[in-house]
Fold each of these.
Amino acid sequence: MWDNPTRGLDSKAAGEFARMLRREADENEKTIITTTYQAGNGIYDEFDKVLVLAEGRVTYYGPRSMAKDYFESLGFICPKGANIADYLTSVTVLTERVVRPGWEEKVPNTPEEFEALYHNSPIYRSQMDAIESPEKLSHETEDLEIAVAAEKRKQHLPRAKSVYTAGIWSQIAACTIRQAQIMWGDKFSLIVKVFSAIIQALVCGSLFYNLPNDSSSIFMRPGVLFFPVLYFLLESMSETTASFMGRPILSRQKRFGFYRPTAFCIANAITDIPVVMIQVTCFSLIIYFMADLQMDAGRFFTFWIIVISQTLCFIQLFRAVGAVCKQFGNASKVSGLLSTIFFVYGGKIYEPFVSPQDLLITS
């Protein structure tokens, strides 16, 4: 018996959960009862029978495939393309139901009237005839009593038992595939990230375009190197918000024993690598060569690897802040404090204000 098990899950996970219940019922010959609301047609079609209640009264109990036709025979219209489950729960709500023209005075209005009509229907009689008599189920009661007594006689040793059926590596692989599919489904966000990195690199590169190879650019070159760190730091701060948005789904999956939070976090870190590499590569190729930094492969790839590493570290840091803080306001404050500390102690703000002429004199 499942009480609203799909609450908090996205539509894809909710559909997979309903199909899992269907397989469990078919393969192990179990009867599964589920209460739910706002169930899509994909979830609704997995069940054999449906029970509709209104203030504790049975307005319908019978085959799933006949529920829509039954209420339409009472004078209610099911909107085209609507969820059948939403339609069944709306017929008793005066502000939501749609009544067939000319049937306004014929349709039932109270739960008692709905129940009376159902008791007079052929579906009710067929369902009552299908109920097994208590005498035929007496052996099941005896089997249950024997099983309970045998269980009580066992001496259980208290030990921690994992609720997860799959290993950590299998969970990481499944979560990685899932995150990759989610990211690929949101191509617009990926395009915006890459496009914004290119625009920022062009703007910054135009400010430091073709730096001269003498002492006049000695304080401008560190600025070129510091800007990628600053830009990707500010962009990584959005991970604090993202961690709060995905928290309800993660908590639900943990509760049902789908995935470990550790596997989910590792999968996120893995899927971040290709996206960050694309962003940093586009950014580095533009700003490095526009600023005319040293044309050496070793120095360029050192710059490239360091920017990628610090970006991945910033992303995980702000995700950790979002995971530790229970309230979004506190997480925002901590993120702002950390970013300010990085600004101050990054080294760029403490460069001495010395002109190139003074530097030439002292040297």
Note: Residues 2-132 form one domain.
Amino acid sequence: MSKKVALTVIAVTLLGLAIGMGIATVRIASVPWEGEVTLGPNPPSGDVGQGLPKVVVDQIDYNFGSMDADDEQSHDFLLTNAGNADLVVSAGDTSCKCVLSKIERPEVPPGGSTKVTVTWTAEEYVGDFRQTAKIKTNDPDNPLLELSVSGRITVAVLAVPKQLEFPRLSVGETASGQALLYCSLDVPLEIGSFKLSDQDTARYFDVAFDPLEPGQLADQPDAKSGYLLRVTVKPGLPLGPFKQTILIGTNLAAYPAIVVPIMGTLVGDISVVGRGWNRDTGVLDLGTVESSRGLKRRLQLIVRGPHRRHVKFTLGEVTPDDLKISFGETKPIGEGAATQTTLFIEVPKGAKPGAYLGSRRNKYGRITIETNHPDVPQLTIPVKLAVQGE
């Protein structure tokens, strides 16, 4: 490009700029600017929060105060939709023993409300508690609400522990246990008469009560009076598991009796093994037997200790009387460390129908075996059995 052409282009450009600036100045002077300056894209028209739900809860935590054990209480939490779109709520997780039992309506229009019911069941729990229930919502600011209930569980009369246990009590051994009986009522607890549920073994249990001093009540903040229960198990119980229950009369109109179960197992030189024998419960389970078919089963009676070579077995009482029981020969096992005697059990064909299931209505059957062992004079085998058919 020649020098003359370049100068011409520059001159034309400058003239164009001058004319544009002049036009703009005249326009501004004649028509003033009434708008506003904005940076970036224009903002949306209308309310920024339009189209969103907003959940508002009347309270997050509710305290039931004091309530009795085994009681059940509920509380309604009120959820309100303060937004301008439908609020949707649904059940989330709950903690142990806390149940989200009801959501009144899962969809709540703007300005509307719904009740969320949370239920708490005490179930023998004693002391302070706090449990939670979670609620899912479509509120972007509160997608998960955590509602909680709290309080304190008390009982009018409480036994600690609830039952006395003697897991493995040796034949000939004397053992003792104790429980604390607490009362939270203003009326002082008084112990009246008591009795043992199983009179057949009652003579093997000694029971005594001592009033608790104020200092002995410190472990239970709600306790105002109480007793120390002392139980002694004496030698003589049949070999195997045993159960007993102490029924304690009181002066309290609402709680006239306190029940304290006793459980344990008596172990010795004689043991039972075989199909259907439950060592933990000490029960022989024969199941359901068709009378037309009958059933045969065998157990082994194992004898250890210094008397093992001289122990003899003879049959005592049998229930039901249809059961046929017999003994096999006794032989040494374990290189002479023990002896084994086979016990044959038969439900014969044509046995009478009956149920022996260990319930209050249908007690277990029973096989009683007499022995010449100095520490185990009698062996009792409970039998669980149901005979069906004509």
Note: The chain has a mean pLDDT of 85.
Amino acid sequence: MTSVTGEYLYNLEEEASVFDARVELDIVNDPVTIGAVFRAYQLSNPDYNPAEIEVPKAELKRRFAEFRRDELFVRAGHFSTTFGRGIALRSFEEIELEYDTFLDGLLVEYGGGWGDLTVLSGIAAEPLFGTRHRDHTIRALRASSDLGDRLAVGAHAVERSEVTWDEEIETLPDELARYDDAVFGGDATAWLGPMTLSGEYALREGENPLTGLGAVSGRATYLSGTLELPWLTLFGEYKDYWDFAHRLMSPPTCVREHLWTMMNRATYEIDADDEAGFLVEGSAPIGDMASMSGGASEARDHDGELKHWEIFGQADHRISERLTGSVGGSWSREYILGKFTERRIAACEVDVVLAGDAGLDVAFEAGQAEEPGGETFEDYLVSAAWYPAADVTVSSLAEATTEKGLASDTWISVEVRKLIADGLEISVSAGTERGGKTCSGGICYVEPPFEGLRLRMTAYF
């Protein structure tokens, strides 16, 4: 199978362009698969780099060979993996946010009647600043098993080491360049009728010369529970992370990741070295045509200082066979050095089914933000998507703000998507984009503002 994605954008304000292409190729000859990922990133002006990445103009980004037969899976080359909830180890790629922690090495997985076993060894490269980069070497083992129909357990051990390199300095001092630690953990999930309970605990031991504190002894605890009844669903999470941050891990945030654009921009990023908190949610149907959901989250450091809290809610109503409406809202505060940024956001959406395959979605969002200095401003966002046919989408987005000091206070863009054939989609968009924080799975990236033309192509064959 082959997938090709390409994007060309031309920024009118900068009078510069970017071409970004990615080709993923898998050649299958059962039981062997050979694959590769090719990446091209071309800048018309080296001073205009909206993704803020330093990569070759063209590179073989990834290559692998894998063997799969019955319960055995072996992969040599680049691979991603997650142990438990990602507390001890998680390697992955978030393409949109330019975040990549794929490991390069060997992954072996075996599943028998008793359970599953994973053994791996690999290296992940982390770009730093200037001429420096860091190599993360990981060696790990995980075993898991289902103990009947109601209980699953797992245990893992991860050995990690880091070496920092500088192309302009032949040898860095050990206190700056080297770091080693080990993580040992276990997890369990139990199904008790309508209730599901999960938990994971891990210990970290090692030397950390980078902080000047010598030995490090960290811990991480995660608990979750879900109760599903015909008339009510409840969900809760608890986290407690201490001296645990590492590039090759991505623990649960215990913070709601919203579908609404403005609410998701206010998503909080955790501090795995010093944080405890919770998330609770509930949802319930109201008759056959409506439902309500809501919840709250909070995070504090281990001294008790508040770092973040949020309250949110949403109601959905199927007004008729052709009309559905939703309203939602959130109120949050994020604290940094004792000062907070407060956000109040409201949103509503209407989905209309038109004749045939046609449809129309319209959403409106409004928010008020108060910054640490006491300044307040409002944001407004209107989005619409029209589906005149099953293979065509026309969408638009308009934003406005009263925030001071920005180059612009309004942004408008229009996009047209067309499915040319099975597996081939092309989109064209033009206008202005505000940019700002975008988050996915606990990883956030600040996109720069944009004015111009954007062409995208995606193909699978």
Note: The radius of gyration is 24 Å.
Amino acid sequence: MVRRRQSVVRDAEVVTPRSSNPEPERIRLVRYFFALPEPLSLPDGHQAVMYVGDRDGSESRDDDPLVSVIFHQVDAAAGRADAAMDALRQTIDRAEGTPRSTKKWSSPKTPTPWTVVEAVTQWESPDEIPDEDVNRPTHWSPRADPFSRCLDATRRVVRAYRQATETPYGIPAYVRIPSPTLVFQADGIREAIELDGRPAEVVRPDGTWSGPDVMLLEHTNFPDPLRGRDFSADVEVRFVHWLGEQERGNPLNLWRERFIEARRAHDVLGEEGQAIVLANTSCEVMLDTILALLLWEEGVTVEDAVPVFEEGKTLRRVSKELAPRLGGNWSTEDGIVADWYRSAYRLRHRIVHGGYAPTARQASEAIEAAAGLQRSVMDRIAARRITYKRSALMTLAEEGLRRRELWSGQIKRFFEEVGPTEPPWRASFTDYHRALVAALSP
């Protein structure tokens, strides 16, 4: 890699220490300008030039495209701090009981630093985008899409920067790049030269740049904060339910939070490794909590339940404890459990212990597999609703059983006639689970 301070356009060429094209070749160049979500303290105009291929750690290939990235440091007129201060001012002026100011509120108009990346690469890509990913740009590989490889080159520079400075800077991801991006195109030439007595490759524009075109990125993560669904009557009912369960410390809620955090890591932050770890954690928490729930309903004491959770890992408890109780296919060779095992459970180990950096596609597959496992477990509980009536009512409730057209017969009569005569199930199981966790703690 050769680093140069000059812009590829002002200098009219991109040079690297490798040559794979003995004869001059006419190519189409594309030039992107996009802002980073956080300013990067590299010198203004810092340039890095590199070949960019697959992101899975495989060896480079002769036809990996060349990318030049230049980091520009600029100041914008205002920033989020000013906007936050203005929001506070408006709220205080209308809040009940706060003194009204007799003078106009003011907030400092501090320029906000931004880092803008100027990236150049060839328009044509050596690989094609798979048909199933045409509408999922976060899955496009650097060898299949020019913007993806420009972003990948940027990520490499940022990784080196944060290691050198030990700054907890977020790795730029597709979902975090502010939209839109500006795009220019020009004809170019790629040819072989000698650089310091060694073969090298030079790529240069041959004509004027056309544009700019505006490219909207396929995400909803704009620089403004993420906003949730409208607070409809349906959302309000669910909100009241989940707030109540949260305040009661219901252990059946724990896995849901990890799953939501996994989706945020993938959809909002672009932290794919964290997304996979959290997706798998949500499943392991769910499986162990469900097993504890079944043992509680069976009347197994906390003392007798402790060895079940102390011996072996999650997969052993799945095969030895959950599968016999809930039935169905729990194989790690094929089926829904196997999808989770391959896409989340095993990949999590590779990420945590091997330092593997997964792709957005892998994170998406892990989240989908985790959701599939969660639905499958609930379906198995529904199938065993007569054996585990309390567990079914505490996890699926009337709504879930109605949705599966199972709200009738024994389970409905049990809920109406027996349930009201017993101590509150949720409080009882919460106490049981807390005692179990305490007994397992060192």
Note: Residues 86 and 107 are 7 Å apart (CA to CA).
